[in-house]
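Predict the 3D structure for this chain.
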Amino acid sequence: MIKISELKRSISEKIAPCYILKGKDGYLRKMAIDTLKEILIADYIDFNCDEISLLSGGAQKVIDALDVLPVLDEKRIVFATDVTDKLIEADFNLLEKYLFNPNENSVLVIVTANSDLVSSNGGKMLKSLEKFAVVVDCSKLAPDEIEYEVEKILSQGKRVTIEKNALETLVQFTGGDMQRIKSELEKLRYFTDGSITQNEVVELVRSE
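Done. Predicted structure below.
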């Protein structure tokens, strides 16, 4: 498993046939998705990027999309979403069979909030696919990485800063979940005169 901060370097060295973005933090999953999209030529991304729900489309629809040739690019990406414990074992079997001999022109990206995913009948597990994939940890950032992302978020729109002790309290209250941190920062920026204080965090943010 690699950290999200290592994903860009990993892609630059070698593009894998499959990536599994695994973790509950929606902000980090989106960050990983955006990083993977950089593989594609921006002008043709609409032709070469699909998002398919496994719950509504099933694994076969994902595989059919992976077998399509890219348009004016070297790669295409298929994001398999809604990867939950409602999946049946047959879906895992189809994906596993595909990954034994994947299309070299396509990249499968499995997106899931569930770290220990098991099929609905308790058979196949997500780990059965991990041996074919680069697994990206989308659960939590290190403190210095959180600080960097917070600065990036606060530099957009109404520019404000956050005091160090205020950030520490915010991270504590949110459990370090970047999706929630971003949401709280968007609220806090409109209740501050320029620098978010610890008192403002304590008053306006609900502790988990």
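The longest helix spans residues 26-37.
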